[in-house]
Amino acid sequence: MSSLITTVRNKFLEAIRSVNPPGRWKILVVDEHSQRLLGSVLKQFDILEENVTLIESITSHREPQPQFEAMYLLMSTSQNVDRIIRDFSNGHQQYAAAHLFFIDGLAEQLFERLTSSPAEPYLKALQELYINFWAIEAQAFSVRNSGSFFNIYSPPRSDTSFKPMRDRLDEELRFMSKMITNVCLTLNEYPYIRYYSPTHHAPLGPLRPHASTRPPPPTETAGRWRTNLARGSDARAYESVEGDYVAKVLAFMVQQNLDEYKKANPDFPKPSDPPRPRGTLIITDRSMDTMAPLLHEFTYQAMANDLLPIEDGTTYRYKFQTAVGAYEDKVATLSDADNVWTELRHMHMREAIDKLMADFNQFMQDNAGFKGEGAANLNDMKDMLANLPQYQEQREKFSLHLNMAQECMAIFERDKLPAVANVEQNCATGVTAEGKAPKTLVEEMVPLLDSRDVINMNKVRIIALYIQHRDGVPDEDRRRLYQHARLTMAEQDAVNALVHLGVRISRQSGDKDTRRKIKQKPSNEEEYELSRYKPVLRTVLEDHAANKLDSTLFPYVKDSPSAAPAASSLRSSPAIQPAVSLRSQKPSWHKAARGASTQQDTRQRLLVFVAGGMTYSEMREAYLLSKSLNKEIIIGSTHALTPKQFVDDLKVLELGGVGSKALPNGLSETNAPARAPQEIYDQKFFTRDAPPPQRAAPAPSPQPRQDKGRLMRPSPVPSFAGSTGSVNSSNYGEKDGEKKKKRGFLRF
User: Would you tell me which of 69, 74, 297, 475 could form a disulfide with 302, CB atoms 3.0–4.6 Å apart?
Assistant: First the structure.
């Protein structure tokens, strides 16, 4: 099947290939953010192979190159538009001509500023790529904004905070909706849209109904008996905020974005050959399943990200044994470029270890002329790996995953995870491994809470799951649980903060059970006792595929499959060229992208977006259900979430994120008026111009040389991190970027 990473990579490559200047060679001009996006799917070598002679940062001081045409690949900010104009103003000509490619859509006022500027005669084409999102896996994407968890769920601290926090949340959701729209446009999808609308709690965080954010009430009249339609828009607007859940607000924004794009591009979505059924986008949020982020998972990727210090789900540091027996520090990138990782990541750890050893033994027989019985366990494998210096790359892959598997299993035993996970599973599923009600749950749980061998993070997770299993407990019982576990105040705050995600944590005698319309269904497949719980998202996707998903719990924004017009009518519109001449110069690559990226995969798409963070178990389900449901399922979120990050964020949720990794200073609660979308965008992607170079440098700079028509320049700092050899490498971003900014330029 097609990969989202491959689709994004092809779109970048085809954009670069569409620029064919008379002199063959071209210069690529990027900004900090577009460079990171480009580097997440392409290596430096891949770009230079496309007749790119030099890559320059638009914020650095650049020598004029009037003999070369330039391709600008930039975020569509006001600052970048001004920089393009500056390159061709006041008698200055930076390049022979400019081909403009914007990562996002370009606002009309910025387009007009460009076309009425002195740069206009030099502009040969303008293309909006709509590719501003992070393709982190073949079937997963991210907005990379973990701070949005606090925007969505942190409760306003006073009556005066509601309005500014709601305005900030609206800004955040509008930005998020643009990224989700970009994914749909990149995939050529105009999907039906469904959203999660819970019935067991009111809207959360700044969306909670409040006088300062609610429209004015309607005037009271004697006509209360009238129908909803006849009562007038004022009354409907006043009451509508009762149902303003975050998924609903976001879903309507995405629908509006797609409708506006379709209005400007009537031929969207372009017909595919063979045709693909129209897909569906389901938008939900973290509050739909607060069990999944707390459970210990034992499939390889989820377990490794839970137990090991893996940064951003991709970067892992470990000790590697060299051929001479010495150990050296290694930094590995876990990405789709590592075939061992992609084969193992969704397997249960026991199966993953078995496969790792079987593949290793097969590798030894095939390549090393190995004689003997092979590796019988992980330690055997470790010893044999040290004797394979000639197979460096494959040896490093096996060594990496051997190290990760060993570390995971050591922690599994050390932290008493078999006993901990058994209690967690009984709480989450509501039944024991034998399928009976867990009557001895407290007796099994309290010794673990008392034990000093169980770390506090795991105690927090047990208590949080137990409280959800009981649908709330009396305050005195909760205090005793905290006492048994010896939790700190911050750890108690983490459990208490679940109330801001719609969980009932306090329960009095006589309280009725919360009626949730959707729960995890028992699985029929063979399963491990410690992996019985399946994320609620799995049930949602299975029910949707079977046309059984409750339409009151997941309403459609606009049209639904039964009420929608025939698919052919959406796809048969003739291509209409935009009226403006510059925008109409669409390179031929724009049409050629489809065939290469889809690889004849015509399965119906099911896109899922989880606002507030997705778990690795939910990402796993997207892959597994793609096979069982015969659909192409792509999951996205604001960020990928580990249990530790979830608990740490819950600790400071009431403080608006103060002290968190994502928002150390917390949410801004200024009473500033709502800002225009372009102003928000400019702030998010603002980059400072580098200072002008020092003219009094005594050392002569090396002279550029011509090599077969190609301008070669010495480079003190590489712009792309190619050291890991990863196609999906993202580790050259912030740290390397900071060094480059200090040096003032990002040339090769």
Answer: 297
